[in-house]
């Protein structure tokens, strides 16, 4: 089951437009279970190819970056988001009203 979840997560990451973010819950909903948000977060820490699969575009439900972002911490996530044109506050939040991708 874990491999299926990871594959679903990776596929979803490829659909997120540049300059946008999604929440862990959005990814979980895509997988068919909004209760999987924490599982999504845990699996993103073992992303096999963070250059190909942009896990840095996933934030929590309040827009907060991952304090323990698996690929260099919150500061590294912030740098990557800013490179995509997303403003990140000094306390590591993005404005979901402005940057959250709403599919459909």
Layout of helices and strands:
Layout: H1 2-13, E1 22-23, H2 24-30, H3 37-44, E2 58-59, H4 73-83, H5 96-99
Parallel strand pairs: 1-2
Helix pairs in contact: 2-3
CATH class: Mainly Alpha
Major β-sheet profile: 2 strands, parallel
Q: Let me know the average pLDDT.
A: 93
CATH homologous superfamily?
A: Winged helix-like DNA-binding domain superfamily/Winged helix DNA-binding domain
**Distance N to C terminus:** 27 Å
What is the number of E strands?
2
- Protein structure class: mainly alpha
Task: Name the poorly predicted regions.
Answer: none
Radius of gyration: 12 Å
Share of residues in strands: under 5%
What fraction, in percent, of the residue positions are helical? Answer: 40-55%
General description of the model:
This protein is 40% helix and 4% strand. It has a single domain (2-99), classed as Winged helix-like DNA-binding domain superfamily/Winged helix DNA-binding domain (Arc Repressor Mutant, subunit A), CATH 1.10.10. The radius of gyration is 12 Å and the shape is globular. The chain has a two-stranded parallel sheet with strand order 1-2. The protein contains 5 helices and 2 strands.
């Amino acid at each position: 089951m874990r491999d299926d979840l990871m594959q679903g997560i990776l596929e979803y990451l490829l659909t997120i437009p540049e300059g946008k973010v999604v929440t862990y819950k959005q990814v979980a909903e895509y997988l068919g279970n909004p209760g999987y948000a924490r599982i999504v977060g845990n699996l993103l820490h073992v992303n096999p190819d963070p250059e190909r699969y942009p896990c840095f575009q996933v934030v929590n439900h309040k827009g907060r970056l991952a304090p323990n972002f698996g690929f260099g911490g919150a500061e590294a996530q912030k740098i990557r988001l800013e490179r995509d044109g997303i403003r990140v506050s000094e306390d590591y939040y993005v404005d979901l009203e402005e940057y959250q991708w709403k599919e459909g």
